[in-house]
Amino acid sequence: MKTPQQRCKARTKSGALCPNHPSASGFCYAHDPARGRERARARRKGGSHSRIPHNGNADALPKQVRTLQDVLAVLDYTLAETLPMENSIQRARLLVALSHAFIEAIKEGELEARVEAIEHALKLRGENEK
Ligand SMILES: [Zn+2]
Q: How many structural domains comprise the chain?
């Protein structure tokens, strides 16, 4: 059991004695009224440091998504933004979802190319029969 001298003089929001070790002021870091500015600075610094910088090239993003190439550009950007994130279940799920989206887009593109090739072949055949 801590004696009062080993404890911060403040009380917690619930009204209990603060269990933290006090500094010379008698308050812990979180409760010392003289250290409010220091705490605010540390919070801002912590916030800016936890933000992950952009990795994707936003200039390569289309203004509107109208074509398969636009979709692939958005997926490329999202993948580039996701990869440097801290590893987590959400990140893993997003990477799996992105992989599915890439597969769908690539499949769609291959189908489009095959239809175009067939149309081209039919057109050539039609011209040869004239
Ligand atoms: Zn305290």
A: 2
**Same-domain check for residues 67 and 121:** yes
Q: Based on the domain organization, do 81 and 37 belong to the same domain?
A: no
Distance 6 CA to ligand 1 centre (A): 11
CA dihedral 21→23→29→35, nearest 10 degrees, is 160
96 Cα to the center of ligand 1, angstroms: 44
Span from the CA of 34 to the centroid of ligand 1 (angstroms)? 13
| pLDDT tens column, 27-67 | 999 999 999 998 888 888 776 666 778 889 999 999 999 99
pLDDT category, 3, cuts 50, 70, 90?
low
Q: Which domain holds residue 17?
A: 4-50
